[in-house]
Please model this.
Amino acid sequence: MVLQVQKSTYEAKTQEIAKQLLAATQENRSFFGALRDQMRWDDKLLAWAMSNPGLRVQLFRFIDTLPALRSKPEIAAHLQEYLGDESVELPSALKGMLNFANPDSMPGQVAATTVSTGVETLAHKYISGENIKQVIKTVERLRKEKMAFTIDLLGEAVITEAEAQSYLERYLDLMQQLVEASKSWTTVPLIDEADGQPLPKVQVSVKLTAFYSQFDPLDATGSEERVSDRIRILLRRAKELGAAVHFDMEQYAYKDVTLSILKKLLIEEEFRSRTDIGMTIQAYLRDSEQDAKDLIAWAKQRGYPITIRLVKGAYWDQETIKAEQKHWQQPVYNDKAATDANFETITQLLLENYQYVYSAIGSHNVRSQAHAIAIAQSLNVPRRCFEMQVLYGMGDKLAKALVDRGYRVRVYSPYGELLPGMAYLIRRLLENTANSSFLRQNMENRPVEELLAPPVPASPSLAARTEAGFSGAADTDYAEEEERKEATLAFQTVRQQLGKTYLPFINGEYVQTQEIIDSVNPSNFSEVVGKIGLMSVEQAEQAMQAAKAAFPGWRKTPVKQRAGILRKAADLMEQRRAELSAWIVLEVGKPVREADGEVSEAIDFCRYYADEIERLDQGYNYDVAGETNRYIYQPRGIAVVISPWNFPLAIATGMTVAALVTGNCTLLKPAETSSVITAKLTEILVEAGIPKGVYQYVPGKGSQVGAYLVNHPDTHVIAFTGSQEVGCRIYAEAAIVKPGQKHMKRVIAEMGGKNAIIVDESADLDQAVVGVVQSAFGYSGQKCSACSRVVVLEPVYDTFVQRFVEATKSLNIGETELPSTQVGPVIDVNAHSRIREYIEKGKAEAKVALEMPAPDNGYFIGPVIFKDVSPNAVIAQEEIFGPVVAVIRVKDFKEALEVANGTNYALTGGLYSRTPSHIQQAQEEFEVGNLYINRTITGAIVARQPFGGFKLSGVGSKAGGPDYLLQFLEPRTVTENIQRQGFAPIEGAD
Model:
């Protein structure tokens, strides 16, 4: 009850203060006035974006591309491509300006100059300077207006260790120069002192993740060590100079680790008594109130206050999309009112604890600021304990009104080159032009009551919006500490089971074998993961006979029952997810996060194919009067599945359950190096209820058992994933009809690729470098979808190669069980020597841009990058299946496509580009089964990116797609004449 009274007291005061502030901000406005035609171009662009959603999207995309464009004709061409799009209704002024026939023409050049000048002016509104000199000028102007500042350094994403070191050095330099300049500043009592105490005149804002290029919540401990070392250097120097340091908050995935690192660091004896350091809380996060409570409790224990900057949050779209794509709960509130209400709750919490934490209230919403002042006044909060913050170029009038009322206002002022600053600019523009933005609503003269009403959240919805159709399994979110603990525990459990023996499973029984081989951990080849019993040809024949005997019963088993077994298997995999991931990591040397993604894929195959068979089981009716025509499917017979080691669970599961659910009896022969994982799959299928003889696990030598089953007259379907050489041999052998064989064998073969990513001159190089590094060196390049060629256009070639090399150098190579590892070993000794041979060939035909050293306790090969490679070189034509990349220089986009298409393969391909016509052309002409634009080219998701290629990359339909199960089925048509003596039932007749 007391709280209610308190709230309503605050509310009356909030309204009173807000009305005064609003009146001050609304004086002499002319934003949408009659002066629109005389507005400057930057204002016009903003005004148009607000009134036209289609234009807003395309305009912001164009602005995002602008930094990459090197000439006026390029700018003019992109203007036409983006704004000439059919989705855009153009204002007449823009329409007239874009009406040029040729980007090289004079009107084209004028359009380019006008718009790029407009964008530059717009950028200057939100970016406080391009260099320190300009920044000092800006802050001196702010100080004249009695406003304090905090400076944030804009720049390229930190993706290399060189960039992380440079980030630290630039901040040390920035602080030094600002403090030097501050010596000549006269004291402004409103901002330089409070309650008789001097305040630091200089403050900088930093991003924690920028201090380590491989910052990753999965490797919380490693990230903490690397980041903390650099932060200590920064904080020590700040103390010597008398500057304050504030830590910004970034994406949700980094939040918990960021808070944990800072809490540990700031309780160290050296930093414990510092009160000139701050952290940030984002009110749009659902768990931010709890974070605020935890920080207050921590600050009490620390005994010295720190500042907490409260903001609403700047990555809403990104967080929402990521949660949807990953099937995770939404970390952010779905509606603006809920964020505003939470902001007010946390404001109250912080101000009521002013003895322990200083509050910095960051908002351009008049009500939010008025609410904070109302509480501060009611509680007599000392001036040192709170301040108001706004972003540079936003809320200027609000800032002035607050200063006039005697409050300390700090302006968050980003600085840096305009071009790398575009991402920041676009976030500001989105905020300014969003329908829900207070700034926009205030400009549109909404009624005062509406603008200042207390926020009323809509009913909460926690879940991500569900996709139409199939919804896949959610990967593990390693930003959650509990999930990291579970992964560690799973490794301990699995390690206790290493070295066990796994036998073939024939007709419902495990059978002894004469030959047993070791499956070793490629990260440490002295460690035996399991012992595998390899079956003989005689035992393979027994398995075939058991399958034949089981087939009549299995084909008659109702589809619902068969699908039920798959769904049960999926549930069991979900329960055993962490353990299955650990087996994958240890047996085939796949890093933890990628192993977890593979378990999701296996689960998805089970559930998706269960759904699919129920769809296909309905068949099709093509009835006409007097006749029924049914189109139905039946199983083919016996399927032999030959699965690879590189996706030992996902691909083995996908091919096997597709064969089973369609009613075929199935023999799974895994690659020898990954037979423990397929033994685990066997345990799961048996527990899920697969009848005996229907599924059999037949580990054996490919050259003996594999060949025997491929050539067997009773084999109907062969599903294979592996090398082109073996795939072509199987295809040839399957074509020969053996004595006693009464059918043609069906071969489904996925046989690898020589995948290229094209990087054109308009690409976002931050995104392209990160995407190529992940696509090329994820799982040490041992995915059939991995990038092994990068085709780069001349204008960006040198810059790309330099950053690609630096980013690759920053990767951690090591045992894949370690959470810090990004590049693990290759699979075995044969792969190791084959890849080394290719590296030697590469040295003879191209220049080595990078060859990284690697540990020698496992089958490790450090990433190798070759540059200036000829498109016809061996390393640019043959599949290497290791961490080796050929970078090829081309003069234009036409040549880039010719080079990309110039191999025998057509599996995956990628394009990094912000030129709409290039994107369109690639969609039409890039010869690949899976084309990825502006993202990595690996990690296809079931029912989202069905996977498979053509040319010599394979034969058959795409795995995880709507046609895949058809390959395991025979279609039949059944026609019945239903007339009797000229009489037949006619629908609709009496």
